[in-house]
Amino acid sequence: MNTREKCKQLRIELETALAAVGAKLGMNIQVGGSMSFTDTTITVKLVASLPDAATGTIESVEARDFKANAWRWGMQPTDLGREFTHIRDTFTIIGAKPKAGKFPILAKRSDGKVYKFAPEQVRLPGTPRTPDPILDLCRP
Question: Which of 62, 58, 30 is nearest to 44 (CA)?
């Protein structure tokens, strides 16, 4: 088994173990981003999401980022969790990665696979982009 295959197997095992540890500690723990490797080492980043003090709910970093930045893409924070259809599949908006540029919206397909989308692909039809007061000052 090569190192790339070992990374894939390690991710699967870690996600299972971290789910159990997170449930025990009352938090959500995930492998964050990609794993890097050499011939002799594998580097893994862990991300733990703690419950909100006011509501007690646990929200992912991506979900918080979506709510904080939804206005940038002509959307509302309440669009988190909204379903939309793309081609023939149904997706649910689960978060965002604001630094992602063209495809910042994260959505999960019904089979659980996560995809990246451009804001135009997930906005409700007829919804214009919300103007950015800072960026619009810089535009001619």
Answer: 30
Which residues partner with 30 through β-bridges? Answer: 47
26 and 70 share one domain: no
Q: Residue 49, Cβ neighbours under 10 Å: how many?
A: 18
What is the extent of the structural domain holding 84? 61-134
| Same domain as 129, residue 67 | yes
Query: Does residue 116 share a domain with residue 67?
Result: yes
Residues 58, 116, 101, 71, CA torsion sign: negative
**What global pTM score does this model have?**
0.67
pLDDT in tens, the chain (140 residues): 788 888 889 999 999 999 999 999 999 898 887 888 888 889 999 989 888 888 888 888 899 999 999 999 989 999 999 999 888 899 999 999 999 989 999 999 999 899 999 998 987 655 555 555 555 555 55
Q: Are residues 44 and 84 in the same domain?
A: no
